[in-house]
Write a structure and sequence with these properties.
With about 220 residues, the protein is an all-alpha fold. It has one domain. Helices cover about 70% and strands about 0% of the residues. The chain is built from 9 helices and no strands. The C terminus is likely disordered. It comes from Amycolatopsis marina.
């Protein structure tokens, strides 16, 4: 009597959190705004001191990221955003305007992510497909396209939450609360968004589906 071959276990589905990560960048991004608020408070509501503190911290954070192998382009973009926010606040004389770029960028992100879903090019699929080297092949898998679309709405919700919170605090001129919200709505919200969107993504896929990395190859582009 011969032993029957033992079937190989199915490969585990890839974790969205493992692919996206992002904790370090989200934490780093919250440090300059916190420095702005601290400098503004310590110097008796001086926007100039707050701006100087934010820019100084941004430079230090950028140097640390570069020393750890971070991308120079990302560091330059982050520093430019901090400098621009500082210049806007100095120009208007309103400390809360330091956070105006953050507010507007989240408005733009919410609109772009929503449009990508409507146009059947959900950005979560674009990002993950690029990371996995799939380019646009994931769009030929109707199950993946549907799952990425559903999960992308969680990212729209993330940006919408920021717009509402930042908008209300900016309108009321609550500088300290804006600094706190900027920290709370960075890594904690990003982590929650990744976790929930990953759950939605995998729950939306059929049980027999191989997962994100092994997108089914179908003839023709069924996602048109």
């Amino acid at each position: 009597m011969t032993d029957s071959p033992v079937p190989e276990p199915a490969p585990a589905r890839e974790s969205l959190a493992t692919l996206l990560g992002g904790r370090g960048g989200a934490v780093d991004a919250s440090l300059p705004p916190a420095a702005f608020v601290v400098g503004w408070l310590v110097a008796d509501s001086s926007i100039a001191w707050g701006a100087a503190a934010a820019i100084a911290v941004s430079i230090v954070v950028g140097a640390v990221r570069l020393s750890r192998g971070g991308k120079a382009r990302a560091v330059v973009v982050s520093l430019t955003a901090v400098i621009a926010g500082a210049l806007i606040a100095l120009y208007t004389g309103r400390a809360e305007d330091f956070f105006l770029i953050q507010l507007l960028s989240n408005v733009a992100s919410a609109l772009v992510w929503s449009a990508s879903i409507v146009l059947r090019w959900p950005l979560l699929g674009v990002v993950v497909g690029t990371l996995l080297g799939q380019r646009t092949r994931w769009r030929r898998d109707p199950a993946l396209l549907r799952a990425y679309s559903r999960a992308s709405w969680i990212w729209v919700l993330q940006y919408t939450i920021r717009v509402i919170v930042f908008g209300l605090l900016w309108w009321s001129g609550a500088v300290v609360a804006l600094g706190v919200a900027r920290t709370v709505l960075s890594w904690p919200l990003v982590a929650l968004t990744i976790a929930v969107s990953g759950w939605v993504l995998h729950k939306s896929l059929p049980q027999e589906h191989p997962g994100l990395r092994l997108a089914a190859e179908s003839k023709g582009d069924g996602a048109r």
